[in-house]
Amino acid sequence: MTSTTQFRQGATIAIQDIQLQGALAGATAKFRAERAHALSELPDVEELRDHFKAIRSATLAKLGHHLETFQQNAEAAGAQVHWARDAAEAREIITGLAQQHGVTLATKSKSMTSEEIHLNQALEEAGIQPVETDLGEWIIQLAEEPPSHIIGPALHKTKEQVAELFSREAGKSLPPDDIPLLTAEARRMLRARFLEAGLGISGANIGVAETGSIVLVTNEGNGRMVTSTPPVHIALMGIEKIAPTWDDAAVWLALLARSATGQPLSVYTSIVTGPARAADTDGPQEVHIVLLDNGRSQLAGTEYEEVLQCIRCGACLNICPVYRSAGGHAYGSPYSGPIGAVISPLLFGLEKHEALPQASSLCGACLDVCPARIDLPRMLLALRGEEVEKGLLPWPERATEGSAAFVLGHEKLMRLVTQLMRWGQKPLAHNGRLRLPGRLNPAQERKLPALAEKSFRDMWRDGEI
Ligand code: SF4
User: Fold this and answer.
1) Is 372 in the pocket of ligand 1 (CB under 6 A)?
2) For residue range 107-134, what is the model confidence (pLDDT) as tens digits?
3) Other Cβ atoms closer than 10 A to 388
4) Distance, CA 261 to ligand 1 centroid (Å)?
5) Residue whose CA is closest, atom 7 of ligand 1?
6) Which residues, 6+ apart, have CB-to-CB distance to 266 below 8 Å?
7) Could you identify the atom of ligand 1 that is nearest to the CA of residue 317?
8) Residue nearest ligand 1's atom 3 by CA
């Protein structure tokens, strides 16, 4: 839920939090620099992006066919495929499977889709303890907070805050400056959970239709522990994450880690094709794949279909001036930044997230960096149009915009109002800028220019230009 007031309050809190501003600036600058460097190493990156766009468009045009192929091949490899129309159905399937197997503890690798369906809460209500094993996800689970970035869920946390959380969990004091010790403690505490868990839950970065395999991209190795140590593995995958062939998946992988973290490939690229075979020394006895719709299929064939091409790399968050100031929590959704501003209203309801289409300067930087060249600014504008049609904007904005439209449509009135404003601004104008009181200018560091003494139109008429 993100009303305009809630977004503004969340953003204001974030902007005033100096520690958070430092963390956001540092992390996003690092991601941006490393992405730029990694892509510069590819000789044909623009052609590769065009090719990837073509693959994603063609795949979505025949999504039903590719999903059926994926299901057939996954089942032929021994996996069991489940279809979930919405979040409630996905939660029911997963908790049901866990209960059938008498699971009391489930380890999880990072999955934004599981955040989307609030899976942890459902597992806890069913008496199953979920343990996040991606370091960032585990930190925010211990802090009982939602993620603040698609690929760096705990990037808002300082090492002091992390040390405090780990100390509480370990039952002993851990120093914030000894990062290797902190990670070693995390590894020790999580390893015990890996061995105890009756179920491993993962997401899926890609589902490859031609073999029914899922691909998981991680940097910490926890994904492999989650998918191979417990006897049962459940993968939750959005239906749009399909690549028809391994050639298509290879293009996807060439762009994903480079766009996300600036790595040529993530440290671990794991492929799961069904459960363990007879000759395998380890691996799960059962693999279940839950294909989640949750509003995605309704976007097919609409002006918003393109958003399904997203591969959740996070590059648009790192470049966005709004995200870099407001941080992830202000968005009130697991998906933040420009992609969150488009996909949250589309998946969860425009009425619930009315603020998000406005949470953009429409500078176009997100389109520039997106590996799939997704035109987020176009869709933000389309959503804004829908908001106007549905009367969702707060009344002061509706009244202001309605009045502005009326004045701009009547030349004489516009001249009169402009002249009145020129006189009225005198007490507020200073060095060509307006010093407006707080509520009229929330971004205090940026001041509106004052109206010029003479308009362009008058200067033109008088031959001054
Ligand atoms: S919209 Fe593009 S840049 Fe943003 S997360 Fe998705 S794929 Fe990455």
Assistant:
1) yes
2) 999 999 999 999 999 999 999 999 999 9
3) 12
4) 13
5) 310
6) 217, 218, 219, 256, 257
7) 4
8) 370
Task: Tell me the C-alpha distance between 10 and 340, whole Å.
Answer: 15
pLDDT tens figures, 44-79: 999 999 999 999 999 999 999 999 999 999 999 999
- CB 154 within 8 Å of CB 139: yes
Do the Cβ atoms of 242 and 215 come closer than 8 Å? no
User: What separation in Å is there between the alpha carbon of 15 and the centre of ligand 1?
Assistant: 24
SS3 200: strand
pLDDT per residue as tens digits for the range 79-101: 999 999 999 999 999 999 999 99
Kindly give the distance from the C-alpha atom of residue 314 to the centroid of ligand 1, in angstroms, as a whole number. 6
What SS3 class is residue 114?
helix
Distance 308 CA to ligand 1 centre (A): 10
Distance 296 CA to ligand 1 centre (A): 16
425 Cα to the center of ligand 1, angstroms: 42
pLDDT band at 4 (very low <50, low <70, confident <90, very high): confident
Ligand 1 pocket test: pick from 48, 296, 307, 339 the residue with the most ligand atoms within 8 Å of its Cβ: 339
Band (429; pLDDT cuts 50, 70, 90): confident
Average model confidence (pLDDT) for the chain?
A: 94
Measure the N-to-C terminal CA separation of the chain; round to a whole number of Å: 51
The per-residue pLDDT for 436 is: 80
- CA distance linking residue 106 with residue 197, whole number of Å: 5
On the question of pLDDT at 1 being above 80, the answer is: no
Ligand 1 atom closest to Cα of residue 313: 8
pLDDT, residue 70, reads: 98
- The preferred substitution site among 35, 307, 322, 370 for testing ligand 1, maximizing ligand atoms within 8 Å of CB, is 370
The ligand 1 atom nearest the CA atom of 342: 1
Instruction: Using the predicted structure, report yes or no on whether residue 323 has a pLDDT greater than 90.
Output: yes
Q: What is the mean pLDDT of residues 360-384?
A: 97
Closest CA to 328 of 229, 316, 132, 382: 316
**Which DSSP string do the residues of 339-395 spell out, in sequence order?**
HHHHHHHHHH-TTTTTTGGGS----SHHHHH-TT---HHHHHHHHHHHHHHTT-S-H
CB 369 within 8 A of CB 363: no
**314 CB near ligand 1 (under 6 Å):** yes
Taking a C-beta distance cutoff of 8 angstroms, is the pair 128, 103 a contact? Answer: yes
Nearest ligand 1 atom to the CA of 259 is 8
What's the rounded mean pLDDT across residues 362-387?
97
